[in-house]
Design a protein that fits this description.
This protein is mostly helical and about 45 residues long. It is built from three helices and no strands.
């Protein structure tokens, strides 16, 4: 993903909304945010 000109929150929002299972787990409040951050950091 090209991040030129995008803020970190915008990039994170895009990654989360593209991954339906992550989005659903966040809505249900059953997600480990540290593990998620480690997983999406390379993106």
């Amino acid at each position: 993903m090209r991040t030129t000109g995008l803020s970190v929150p915008e990039v994170v929002r895009d990654i989360i909304t593209r991954n339906r299972s992550v989005y659903d787990c966040m809505k249900m409040d059953v997600i480990n945010y540290t593990a998620l951050a480690v997983k999406i950091q390379p993106e």
